[in-house]
Structures are given as C-alpha cells and as structure tokens.
Amino acid sequence: MHLRAAETASAPHPRTVHATDRAWDLAALALIAAGLGLFAVARGALRSLAAGSYVPRGGTTFVASTDHHVTQSTMAVAMIAAGVLVGIIAAVRHGVRKRQSEERGR
Fold first, then answer.
1. CB 48 within 8 Å of CB 54
2. Which of 39, 66, 36 lies closest to 54 in space, CA to CA?
C-alpha cells in the first residue's frame, strides 16, 4: 500500500529527544553500570576473603584487603545512587523540555 504525498505531508512527525538529554541518560546509565560492575568485583573479593581462597598481595594484611574491598563496595553503592539521581534529573529535564515544546506547538 502506497501513501500519497498529501497523506504523508499531513502525518505528524515523531518528536525527537534533544542530544543533551540523551547525554544525561547515557551518563546515568554509565554510572549505574560502572557501579554494578565495581560492586560485583568487591563482592567477589569479599566472598573469596571469607572463604579463605583470597591471598592478599604485596604484603598487605587480610584486614587491609577487607577494608579496601568494603570501601570499593561503598563507592559502588554511591555510584549507583549518583546514577539514579542523574536519571531522575534527566527525567525531569525530559518533562520540562516536552512541556515547553507542547506549549510552543499550541
């Protein structure tokens, strides 16, 4: 089925998302993904320490290694929280920009 030129000209164009909004979304995704990855690494290391299969390197003690990986997991949770916050900010920006474009279209 072919549409005539008049029918396609009157069809509404899909709205596009602004590039800066996409950048905010990407930043949120990157923070969350990096935080999840770091948390997985820290959790695996802490699990190995608890099981006794982790050998600290460079003359560090088990306590120092544990502190290091606990700090990693804390930082990972902070990164995930920051990613969620950036995502919320991005959603608010999307909403504001959408309302502004709708008001201009009236």
1. yes
2. 66
Count of other CB atoms within 10 angstroms of residue 42: 20
Give the list of residues 6+ apart from residue 80 with CB closer than 8 angstroms, or none.
31, 32, 35, 36, 39
Here the tokens at position 96 are 């504001």
* Rounded distance between C-alpha atoms, residue 17 and residue 12, angstroms: 16
Q: What are 19's two structure tokens?
A: 């590039």
Both structure tokens of 2: 């072919």
Provide block-wise average pLDDT over 10 residues at a time, the chain (106 residues).
54 67 93 98 94 85 92 98 96 86 75
Instruction: Give one DSSP letter per residue of 48-76, joined into a string.
Output: HHHHT-----TT--HHHHHHHHHHHHHHH
